Amino acid sequence: GVAVFAWKGESEDDFWWCIDRCVNMDGWQANMILDDGGDLTHWVYKKYPNIFKKIRGIVEESVTGVHRLYQLSKAGKLCVPAMNVNDSVTKQKFDNLYCCRESILDGLKRTTDVMFGGKQVVVCGYGEVGKGCCAALKALGAIVYVTEIDPICALQACMDGFRVVKLSEVIRQVDVVITCTGNKNVVTREHLDRMKNSCIVCNMGHSNTEIDV
């Protein structure tokens, strides 16, 4: 008896329609928000703020969504308790690392049908998600570079056998660019202009803000 509003190949308009249907489904009223990326929370605040009178709390599982909750809290607009699941040990050390280690390969293979042995790949970010991506691609025989602004994570990448670089240093030569930072504008228009033809660009984070398109 669980209603699901989702399908493969959704447009952005479809995506927001599905979220709206989750809020507006006939015959029920939510009392909790279980969110990934903060999109549902954002939509309710934007379109249906009165619903929060019956919401007891928000559970958020992604870096992007947690950032959005902190922004709401800082602005004094977070009117219900919110739980940061993303920073839990089980989420960080298992889902972010091991699940991403498998899903990056599944996603790339399904969408590109490309052989990655010998390909030059740059992974932006060496948190748990980045670690999983790097391990998976290295196991396939890819030549993996890492960009990282945190000195401890950068040292971890070095100790794991990856060359730590600036994105601008390798952008002309790599075959694949993967963002795993939870930040915005990691890959800029300038980077896109300098990439080789047919370079594969993908994002392992939640939102599309890491790549400036």
From TrEMBL:
Residue ranges of the TM segments: none
Keywords attached to this entry: NAD, One-carbon metabolism
Protein name, UniProt field: SAHH2 protein
Keyword NAD among record annotations: yes
Cofactor dependence: NAD(+)
Superkingdom assignment: Eukaryota
S-adenosyl-L-homocysteine hydrolase NAD binding domain span: 96-213
Family stated for the protein in its record: Belongs to the adenosylhomocysteinase family.
Listed Gene3D superfamilies: Adenosylhomocysteinase-like, NAD(P)-binding Rossmann-like Domain
One of the GO biological process terms: S-adenosylmethionine cycle
Gene Ontology annotations for the cellular component aspect, listed alphabetically: cytosol
Annotated signal peptide: none
